[in-house]
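Weekly structure sync, notes
Attendees: PL (lead), two postdocs, one rotation student
Agenda item 3: pending single-chain targets
PL asked that the sequence for the first pending target be pasted directly into the notes so everyone works from the same version. It is reproduced below exactly as submitted, 244 residues in total.
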Amino acid sequence: MAKTPATPHHIAIVMDGNGRWATRRFLPRVAGHKQGVEALRRCVKACADRGVGVLTVFAFSSENWNRPVEEVSGLMDLMVGALGREVPRLRDDGVRLHFVGERGGLSEKMTAGLVQAEAATAHNTRLIFNVCFNYGGRWDIARAAATLAERGELPTEANLDRAMALAHVPDPDLFIRTGGEQRLSNFLLWQSAYAELVFSDKLWPEFDEAALDEAIGAFQRRERRYGKTSAQVSTDTERSRLPA
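Predicted structure, written out during the meeting:
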């Protein structure tokens, strides 16, 4: 029997359902995004408490610019406000922030806030917290390929891997999407090749510690074979238990 996986080192989350949460309560969609920040605060703390090493979340996709202007504006204001409130707490809690995505289309104020937040938490080691903002998986792959071309390097799998936006962390072990939808939506397309996928019906503002534990439990019940057979995985596991 294969060894049960431990707590996933890297969890990636598509935080879906903020707008629907608000609509069902006859509230403006931005109210759902505000509540989503509260859910994210809980999730960051819960991941750190459970020994997760890396948390990566999809905060704003490159396609989200197509949403209504008032919603996009509200999201930008929410991001600026959250930086001011949350960064001191994250710094004190040992969380290191990385913002991943195209910064060219962001305001100077927003860009400066991202840089300052990363600098303020640069020495923390308890949890690496990647916030994908103005990010898309296809953009990530195309940008990595362009980087290799500029360097004159061949686009091998290893070279592309080193040029990706999340090259500073291992690939996700567990990929969670809330809101009941079952698709990747252009998130971490390269990095999620062998991630275990868990889809939750909970809207993101409702996602709590119990829902996180349920997703981790689903991950731990799975056998990660990476192209091998179950018999091979079992043999490899037994060999790993033998004394050196």
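Discussion points:
- The helical segments are 18-23, 29-49, 69-92, 108-120, 137-151, 157-163, 209-220, 230-241.
- The two ends are 21 Å apart (CA to CA).
Action: rotation student to compare against the earlier draft before next sync.
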